Amino acid sequence: SSGGVPKLSTKVPVTIHVQDVNDHAPQFLHSAYMQSVPENLPSGSPILEVKAIDKDGSSPNNFIVYRIQSGASDKFVISPDTGVISVATGASLDPDMTDPKTTEYSLSVLALDGGVGEHQLQSLCRVNISIKDVNNKPPYFLDPGTISIRENTPVGTYAYRLLANDLDREPILRYYMDSNTSEARSEEGALVKISEYDYLSAFMLNSTDGLIRVIKLLDREKVEIIKLGFIVEDIAAEFGKQTATTTLTIVVEDENDNNPKFRNSFYKRSIPENSPHGVTIMSVVAYDMDKNKTIRYSLEGPKEITDLLHLDAETGEIVVANKIDYEVFPWLNFTVRATDSGHPPRSSLAEVFIQVIDENDNNPYFPNDVTNFTVYENFNDRNEDCHHTSS
Question: Which pTM was predicted?
Answer without folding.
Answer: 0.66
